[in-house]
Amino acid sequence: MRMEKQRKGVRLVLLPLPFQGHINPMLHLANILYSKGFSITIIHTTFNSPNPLNYPHFTFCPIQDGITTQSDDSSSLNLLHLIILLNIRCVTPFRDTLAKVISDARDNKEHVACLVSDGLFYFTQGVSNTFELPRIALREGGASSFVPFVLFPLLIERGYIPIQDSQLEETVTEIPPLKVKDLPLIDTKEPEKYYKELSNLVEGTKASCGVIWNSFEDLESSPLSYLRQEFQIPFFPIGPFHKYSFSHSPSSSSSSSSSLLTQDQSCISWLDRHKPNSVIYVSFGSLAAITAAKFLEIAWGLASSMHPFLWVIRKGMVIDDGKECLDPPFPAGFIDNLQGRGYIVKWAPQQEVLAHKAVGAFWTHCGWNSTLESICEGVPMICMPFFTDQKVNARYVSSVWKIGVQFEGEVKREEVVKMIRGLIEGNNKEGSQIRERVLDLKEKARVSWNHGGSSYTYLDALVNFILSFEP
Ligand code: UDX
Questions:
Q1: Exposed, middle or buried by CB within 10 Å (0-12, 13-18, 19+), for 402?
Q2: Can you tell me the distance from the alpha carbon of 393 to that of 438, in angstroms, rounded to the nearest whole number?
Q3: Quick one: CA dihedral 390, 396, 401, 402, positive or negative?
Q4: How distant, in Å, are the alpha carbons of 170, 251, 286, 385, 391 from that of 182?
Q5: In sequence order, what are the beta bridge partners of 343?
Q6: Which candidate, 280, 225, 239, 182, places its Cα nearest to that of 375?
Q7: Angle between helices 79-89 and 191-206 in degrees, nearest 10
Q8: Which end of the chain is more exposed for a tag (fewer CB within 10 A), N or C?
Q9: Which ligand 1 atom is at minimum distance from the Cα of 348?
Q10: What is the pTM of this model?
Q11: 3: Cβ–Cβ under 8 A, 6 or more apart, which residues?
Q12: According to the model, what pLDDT value does residue 71 have?
């Protein structure tokens, strides 16, 4: 993207939610807005702090959240509890820091035009109101998964939620093709708290003056148009963010700069040694955890498929008897028997991996970033969602866009083999059609962020919207 001249004196304040799947899109967005000439201040929690050294063109202001857990332990935390806590603990330090940023800007003859904060940081709406500062919400997930969030009260009223086991396979007639089992829930002993958080997210987003989506019209036109009617505020679907490239500071726009964990680059030279479309890439994002039993089914399935695989096994990703396994619990001799067909890393340069010609399929948990990254590289998916939006994303991948297949029940090694072979080996008709459709969607994504495409045009609209906020 061509760098525009700095708009002297217009500063934007951005606040990411401190999880990998939220930090990545917010920092990509910061680069996009910087390239449009805005000065950028990132206010961030000390918990899971991004690395300011990777972004010398931004100003970083840490706020003390009092959360001491290290980033690589976040999977073991109760996510719901943490989001509630962040929305309480950050109020005062965020308000004080924002006040200082606004007053420093004034001293420097600058004007803070608006706050862009993660939708799940709903507390920021109240704070920005007190400063009469417009707030734009960033929804890092898709529009398709936001629709059930908006409809939660209705879904509870109509008896879909709490979910009954006898209804799992039934279609939710209000939002087909979602089935009851696809509803974006999370495993919690405190469902009421989860419903309350969703309501806070939806109401906080409605109260904002506009929403930026990491999505594009051709992908989600119908959920976007439903939500536009419901919300009656401007929408800016300007995604996929990570595909914009910049003439400024190219290092800061690479995927590694916002990564909380070190990406193991050695897997790229391993991929270089493989035939096109032959490798299955397996990764379940930054938060999902699996039991040791499930881990073994996955491992045996991958081994029996006879295809090479690259597997991200994060520290603490496997849980046995309620405890994190320090090492992946492979059976004795398992790795040696693979004879180099499997490559394991703790964290991968995912965007580079998906763009590698050797990768033929992505076995994913369907986090929104992973889903978009796979679409952008035209890689078909094997979906194994864990919680919340991942379940909706998986159904869209398998049944709406039809660019992947999904495990419908327990993961069994025989099924793993069938799925991998169906997608990767060219003699399967369904697999070939899936590949054609994902390549078509890849092209639509490319068109959207190029000159004249929908995301490109919405980005211009977003810039004008921000410039309309008077000092
Ligand atoms: C979380 C939620 O789980 C997800 O449902 C929501 O949509 C976003 O927030 P996460 O589970 O981490 O995110 O998944 P995802 O959205 O896919 O984001 C993971 C990010 O980490 C991606 O940008 C991916 O490229 C990156 N990643 C993943 C790596 O850089 N290396 C890896 O090895 C794995």
A1: middle
A2: 15
A3: positive
A4: 10, 38, 21, 9, 5
A5: 310
A6: 239
A7: 50
A8: C
A9: 33
A10: 0.96
A11: 35, 246, 247, 248
A12: 42
Any idea what the Cα angle at residue 199 is, between residues 198 and 201, rounded to 5°? 65
The single-letter code of the amino acid at 291 is: T
Q: How do residues 344-372 score in pLDDT, each as one tens digit? A: 999 999 999 999 999 999 999 999 999 99
| Tokens at 302, concatenated | 């991958």
Helix axes 217-231, 454-467, angle to 10 degrees: 40
CB-based pocket (< 6 A), ligand 1: 19-22, 24, 140-141, 255, 259, 263, 283, 285-288, 312, 347-348, 350-351, 367-370, 373, 388-390
CA–CA gap between residue 92 and residue 214 (Å, rounded): 29
Amino acid at position 301, single letter: G
* Protein residue closest via CA to atom 25 of ligand 1: 350
**What's the CA-to-centroid distance between 205 and ligand 1, angstroms?**
22
pLDDT at 67: 83
Query: Which residues in the chain land under pLDDT 50?
Result: 71-76, 250
CA–CA separation, 212 and 374 (whole Å): 21
